Amino acid sequence: MTGESNSQPAWSRKVDFISDFMGSSNSDRTESEPTMPDNVEPVSDAVFEQQIIDALRGVYDPEIPVNIYDLGLIYEVDISDDRMVSVQMTLTTPGCPVAQTFPATVECAVKCVPGVTDATVELVWDPPWTKDRMSEDALLSLGLL
């Protein structure tokens, strides 16, 4: 939207849009304090972790038709007691054309999981990604098994 002036960060606008869509009220939320919508029921830690993994499986590598979780791009998912999520991920190559923008896409997907209080995504290069990190499903879908 060229010419539109909006000082609110893009991820915050997306969270607001999703909150409005889901019918929750987060009018007193600040940019630094995303909150769980009022209508979200707490779930067990195991269910919450699976919801995070499912969200990561909903993000696909832009060059390979496989989700980033099964592709082995997710190295670590850490969930704190207050349900802040930290993700360490890599890309298939350091020269990947989406290296600057893709972590924000992943962060947005994680933040959209009900109950996530905040999320950060760190791009790491060590150890380098290899196809050995791919799940059996990913190998099968690419015809590598």
Molecular structure report:
With 145 residues, this protein is an alpha+beta fold. It contains four helices and three strands. A hairpin with a 4-residue loop joins β1 and β2. The radius of gyration is 16 Å and the shape is globular.
Considering the chains and any ligands shown, give keywords for the structure.
disordered N terminus; 3 strands; three-stranded mixed β-sheet; alpha+beta; 145 residues; GMP Synthetase, Chain A, domain 3
Topology at a glance:
Elements: H1 10-22, H2 45-57, E1 74-79, E2 84-89, H3 102-111, E3 118-123, H4 136-141
Parallel strand pairs: 2-3
Antiparallel strand pairs: 1-2
Give a quick account of the main beta sheet: strands, pairing sense, barrel closure.
Answer: 3 strands, mixed
**Alpha-carbon distance between the termini?**
45 Å
**Superfamily (CATH H level) name of the domain at 42-141:** Fe-S cluster assembly (FSCA)
Shape: globular
By CATH, the architecture of the domain at 42-141 is named 2-Layer Sandwich
Can you give the helix content as a percent range? 25-40%
Radius of gyration: 16 Å
Range of strand content:
5-15%
Give unreliable regions as ranges: 1-12, 24-34
Q: Looking at CATH, which topology of the domain at 42-141 would you report?
A: GMP Synthetase, Chain A, domain 3
Lateral arrangement of strands in the main beta sheet: 1-2-3
What's the CATH class label of the domain at 42-141?
Answer: Alpha Beta
Mean pLDDT: 82
Structural class: alpha+beta
Reading the helices and strands in chain order gives: HHEEHEH
Count of alpha/pi helices: 4
How many strands? 3
